[in-house]
Structure formats: structure tokens, C-alpha cells
Amino acid sequence: MIDQNLVIKLAVLAVYVGILFLIGLLASSKIKGMSDYYVGGKKMGFWAVAFSARATGESGWLLIGLTGMGAIAGYSAYWVVIGELLGVFISWQFMAKLFKKRSDAFGAITIPDYLQSHFKTSTHTLRIIASFLLVVFIVIYVASQIDVTGVAFESMLGINYKLGALIGFFIVLAYIFLGGFVAAVWSDFFQGLLMFFGLVLLPIVVWFSMDHGAGISAELNAIDPTLTNIMGRSSDGWMNLFTILGFSMIGLGFLGSPQVYVRFMSIKDKKEIDKGKWIACIFTLLTDAAAVTIGILARIYFTSEGQDPEVVLGNNGEGVLGMITESFLPTILAAIFVAIVLSAIMSTIDSLLILASSAITRDFYQKIFRPDIKNENLTKFSRRSTVIIAFSALIIALIMNYVSPDRQIFWVIIFGWSGIAATFCPVIILTLFWKGYSEKGAIASMASGFIAVMLFNFIFKEMETIGAYFVALDVLFPAFLVSIIVGFVVSKLYPPSKEAQNMIERIDNG
After folding, report:
1. I need a labelling partner for 412 at 20 to 30 A (CA). Which of 119, 263, 314, 454 fits?
2. DSSP string, 29-66
């Protein structure tokens, strides 16, 4: 007998996919060359860029990971909201316009373009290192997003994990292949709207559908009193401090991550950044707070005192969203939430694939091996590189599922996010705000950030006495600090040329 609910969900999903393909087809008519394919010809409006930047920055962890974190951690999970909001505000308020001004002056359409021009370097060393590290962490990050796709299909549609991962993979690959960056931004805008309204409205619906009882805090206290402690759940003060830092410092990733900053390159002009800032901040505050709240309400509704929440809600609470939508929403709305989850995932995958493709096509192939080739002749090559990167990530995702079936999605995604952020954010910050930063300092920052992510994740977390603290802290904050300090020290030892410093001063004063 056919499951009517599944048919409805698949029908809604088919409509959603149809809209994405239509966006891809419309966007393909806008692609005339590399600038169009990678930064939309630098003609994007603030609404599209703001929603695209936020949808790209959030990814599948917002709906699957952060809702689960809210259920497991309780009130202390709101530190993620505070950290992300601060990161987004600082990025748009203090960094975006300066980055836009300089990248336009350089004629840059990729992050390695920007870095090479900023330091006025005549060698390709910086470009090669930046492109290589970008591709490595993007493949890891895309693999984690494909992994979440499989989990989402399995938990919300009952479709086999591998089949779900493959379906989501081919959907996103198809519309990027057609329309490049324009398709990514337009689809991100559409998907961002779905994410925003879905997340904001869901906890309101759940709240009015639940028996309010004694109130949220009282009911959480009845389950586990530590859930209402905003300063952390441990009796160890140091553990709580490391946990709060780990949650809040996730926002550091918005201070220069290439997949976000390429959107600042694409925006029409600096005035649009002022308009987009408030949209980005409101989106972040409401969606992140809603995700944590959904998790907290699920903890109250589905669990009771003494129960292991992961037995009920899934590994690290990753089944929360599917359980909430099935319990409180009619089938048609639950189906729309499947599309919303896929929106969060795909809006990140599309941006990352285009970014990695630009690193291979422009920064390796064109700039190093074929400087004579014209931009318009590179479109086919860029599409091929997108496919190769995507399949590499798919293979890693399937291996990850096989090798580690008990992996925690929240932290797997954060590892990919942290790798990109710790490698590139300190470099972007120092190029914008310190004239004494040098090319050798930038190379040292990227290399040390990359190495530090690996060390803190695979060495420090495994240490017997302090490992638990570094598990709570995670890798982004310490790796970020290492990258900043190493870049500063090396730049002092090997300062930039006067010519490069004078060029930056002319651009900033012009």
C-alpha cells in the first residue's frame, strides 16, 4: 500500500526541485564569462547578497545540528546565537565595505586574486597555497553537507541514507552546472526565504500546540536542572568556560570566510552593503534563536527525567526537527520543511563548489599555466572542475558514513567550517586592518591555521587530562589565535614592501 504522506512529501519536493532548475536555466542566460560565473558580474543587489550570504553561512547544521544542540545543551546553546550575531555584524559593519573597495580596485574575482594583488607579489606561491588549502577544506565541508543531506532524507522521508545523499547531490550539481554564481545567489535567496519563515514560525506553532504546563524553565528543570544554566551544564567552571567559548567563537568564521566574502565582491556597490547589513543581522538573530528554541521545546515534549536524550532524539539530537514537524504540522507543511532542510544544505553546497571551481580554474589553470587563455574560453573547464570536486566530496561523505556511523553532524560540519575559517579569516582581517602584514606573514598564517586545525582536532582532543576541555572548545578559536599570532610574528620579521603599502594607502584614500 502506498504511503500517502510520503507521496505528498515527494510531490512538494518535486516542486521545490523544479523551482531550482528554473532558477538555473534563467541564470544560465546571464553567464557571459568568468566574472559572471564566479561573482555574477559584480551586479548583485543587497537583498540577494544578504540572504545568499546568510544561507551559505548557515548550512545544514542550522536545522539539523543547532536544533539538536538546543535539545542537548539547553539554554547554554544560545551562546551560539550571540557569537554568530556578533560575527555577522562585525563582518558587515567594519569589514565588508573596505574589502569591496579593495577587491574592486584590484579587479579581483576570487580570494587568491585579492591576496595576490594586495601584496603586489610577482610569484604564484601565495596563490597556489591559498587555492590548495581552499580546495582541501571545501571538499571536506561539502562532504559534510552531503552527509547531512542523506541524514535529512532518512530521518524526514524514510529514504535510505545513500539514496538521499545521491538525490540531493545531483540536484545541486545540476542547477550550479547551468547557472554558476548567479544561479547560486538567486537560489540562495529563494532558499533563504524558506529557511527564514520556516524556522521563525515553527517554534511559535509548537508553543501554541503544546501543553504549557509550568513554563519552559520549570519543565526543563524537572528533566535536568543543568539545562537551564546559561553558563554551562558542568560542575567544572573551566569546562563551562571552554564550552561557552566553543559555542560563541563559531561566529569568528564570518570574519573573512571565502564563501561569504566572495558575495561582498559580487554586490553592486558599497551602498548596498549598508542596506544588506540589517537584513543579514535580523536573519541571523531570528533563525539561530528559533533553531535553539525548537530543540529546547523538543526536549520538553519528547523526553522526561532520567532518559538519555540521544536515545529518544537521535545522535546529538539530530532527529529533533523531523520529530517536531511530524508531531505538530500537517503533512503538507511537514513536506515543506523537508524542502527547507534541503535549502539550508544546498545553499551552502552550491557556493562552496563554485568557490572551489574558481580556485582550480582561475587560480591554478588560468593564472599559472594558461595566462594567455581568455575568460570566455574557461567556462567549460570550470564546469568540469565543479563536477570533479563534487564527486570527490560525495565519495568522502559515503566513506564517512561507513567508517563512523555514530559521528555527530554538528561537529563534523563545524570541523569543515573551522578549517576554512582558521585558514583564511585571520588573513582577511590582517590584510584589511594592518598595513604591516606581508606576503610571507599571510603564507605563515594560512599554513599555521591549517596545521593548528589538524593538531587541535586530532591531537589535543585525544589528550588524557586536557582533551575534554579541547573537545568543548573545539578547534576554531585556538587555531584562529595561532594563525593571527604566527602571521604577526612572521610579518615583523619579513615586512611588506613599501610599494605594496603605498598602493593600499592610495586605494583607501581614493
Report:
1. 263
2. TT--SHHHHHHGGG-B-HHHHHHHHHHHHH-HIIIIIH
Q: Can you read off the three cell numbers belonging to residue 308? A: 538519555
- CA proximity to 287, closest of 495, 50, 124, 34: 50
Amino acid 212: pLDDT: 65
Residues of the chain with pLDDT under 50: none
Length of the chain: 510
Cβ neighbours of residue 29 under 8 Å, at least 6 residues apart? none
Beta bridge pairs of residue 464? none
Q: What is the pLDDT of residue 30?
A: 62
Cell of 441: 606573514
Model confidence, pTM? 0.87
Q: Supply the pLDDT for residue 42.
A: 67
- The maximal CA–CA distance of the chain, rounded, in angstroms, is 76
CA 395-183-91 angle, to 5 degrees, is 85
Q: Which three cell numbers stand for residue 83?
A: 557569537
Tell me if 114 sits within 8 A of 132, measured CB to CB.
Answer: no
Cα–Cα distance between 185 and 55 in angstroms, integer?
A: 9
User: Which residue in 198, 181, 207 sits closest to 40, CA to CA?
Assistant: 181
CA–CA distance, 144 with 140 (Å, rounded to integer): 6
Map grid coordinates 548567479 to a residue. Answer: 182
Q: Tell me the C-alpha to C-alpha distance, in Å, between residue 344 and each of 64, 217, 438.
A: 9, 30, 37
Q: Which amino acid is at 22?
A: L
Dist. CA 436–CA 246, nearest whole Å = 30
pLDDT value at position 464? 87
| Locus of grid cell 571538499 | 139
pLDDT 10s digits, 383-422: 788 888 888 888 888 888 787 776 666 566 777 778 888 9
Q: What are phi and psi of 267, to 5 degrees?
A: -70, 150
317 Cβ contact list (under 8 Å, min separation 6): 67, 68, 69, 70, 71, 72, 295, 298, 299, 309, 310
Q: Cα torsion for 421, 62, 261, 509, to the nearest 10°?
A: -100
What does the pLDDT read at residue 64? 82
Cell reading at 351:
557556493
pLDDT at 397: 85
CB 338 within 8 A of CB 12: yes
- Cβ(84)–Cβ(284) below 8 Å: yes
Rg (CA), the chain: 22
- pLDDT number for residue 76: 96
**C-alpha–C-alpha distance, residues 451 and 445, integer Å:** 10
3-state secondary structure 449-503: HHHHHHHHHHCHHHCCCCHHHHHHHCCHHHHHHHHHHHHHHHHHHCCCCHHHHHH
